[in-house]
Specification:
Blueprint lengths: L7 E6 L5 H11 L3 E6 L4 E7 L2 E5 L5 H18 L2 H11 L15 E4 L2 H13 L7 E6 L6 H19 L4 H16 L4 E6 L1
Parallel strand pairs: 1-2, 1-5, 5-6
Antiparallel strand pairs: 3-4, 6-7
Helix pairs in contact: 1-5, 2-3, 5-6
């Protein structure tokens, strides 16, 4: 597969704000057919106090969240990077989306932490089988901060680029994961599930 747009890819984090959106941005720029999601009940962003996060419903636009934080304390949310992140996000898509609510099908789903991976696998296993189309669910651990999200986006893009070269992903993926793990010194979780 040499045309990256033929591979349907989803990137999933908890709130569809930082890690999944950074990877979404990178993959889209490389021409991939990519969507991004969160698995949480709601979108949570750091607040002015550790125990008081800003909480939004999935579907609240990045623009509305940006304006809300800007109105609360523009200087604080500029310094901690949230307004910059939201500015990037609103240029990519309208709003954070919840993975459990999508009907789209993918060839590869990449999660960024084991807890999110477990939720994606649990959701996929609970779905009624439609057409037995395989989907590869992979986890690449990425710490939830701006710098690590950037590095994670590079790693995820590198891994998806490798997989996009395959003419038979279902047969080649185990070998590709092993090669990637050795080259990048990372452990990748992998499950094959079916739509």
């Amino acid at each position: 597969m040499t045309d990256p747009s033929k591979l349907a890819v989803a990137v999933v984090c908890s709130s569809n704000m930082n890690r999944s959106m950074e990877a979404h941005n990178f993959l889209a720029k490389k021409g991939f057919n990519v969507r991004s999601y969160g698995t949480g009940e709601r979108v949570k962003l750091p607040g002015m106090a550790f125990d008081k996060p800003n909480v939004y419903e999935f579907g609240t636009s990045y623009e509305d969240i940006y304006r809300d934080l800007e109105a609360k304390d523009k200087e604080f949310y500029t310094q901690n990077g949230l307004l910059h992140m939201l500015d990037r996000n609103r240029r990519i898509k309208k709003c954070p989306e919840r993975f459990q609510e999508t009907k789209e099908q993918f060839d590869i789903i990449v999660t960024v932490e084991e807890r999110v991976y477990d939720l994606v696998v649990l959701h996929m296993e609970s779905m009624e089988s439609v057409d037995n189309r395989p989907v590869h669910v992979l986890n690449v651990d990425v710490v939830d901060n701006a710098e690590d999200a950037l590095m994670g986006a590079f790693l995820i893009t590198d891994m998806i680029n490798l997989m996009a070269k395959s003419t038979d992903l279902d047969n080649d993926i185990d070998e590709m994961i092993q090669e990637f793990e050795e080259r990048r010194n990372r452990v990748i979780l992998h499950s094959v599930l079916f739509y």
